[in-house]
């Protein structure tokens, strides 16, 4: 995303990861225009819902795009890389 438009203030596990109440650990690197996050749980999960929730703070009025560059899902020793979601839109209004 455009770091002049908004800054990320928080990345939290989404509804899918907290569905059963299992603890979720997170490792976050939040930079201008980029966030890298790794969530881990003691056991896998199943169902549907959001994997992550991102919270932004607007810096100036305008619109922009938020792009998820990659997603990796690990189970046991295996890792799969599902297709990332389509770009989202961020709107900062006065």
Architecture overview:
The chain has one helix at 15-18; strands at 6-13, 25-31, 34-40, 52-58, 62-66, 73-75, 78-80, 88-92. The two termini are 19 Å apart. It is built from 1 helix and 8 strands; from the N terminus they run βαβββββββ. With 94 residues, the chain is mostly beta strands. The strands form 4 sheets. The protein has a two-stranded antiparallel sheet with strand order 1-4. A two-stranded antiparallel ribbon has the order 2-3.
Topology record:
Layout: E1 6-13, H1 15-18, E2 25-31, E3 34-40, E4 52-58, E5 62-66, E6 73-75, E7 78-80, E8 88-92
Antiparallel strand pairs: 1-4, 2-3, 5-8, 6-7
Features:
single chain; 94 residues; two-stranded antiparallel ribbon; 8 strands
The percent range for strand residues is over 45%
Shape: elongated
- Our measurement of the CA-to-CA distance between the termini, rounded to an integer number of angstroms, reads 19 Å
Helix vs. strand class: mainly beta
Q: What about the largest sheet?
A: 2 strands, antiparallel
Would you tell me the overall average pLDDT? 90
Number of helices: 1
The number of strands is: 8
Q: Identify low-pLDDT runs.
A: none
- The ordered string of helix (H) and strand (E) elements is EHEEEEEEE
- Rg, rounded, reads 15 Å
Residue share in helix: under 10%
- Record the strand order, biggest sheet: 1-4
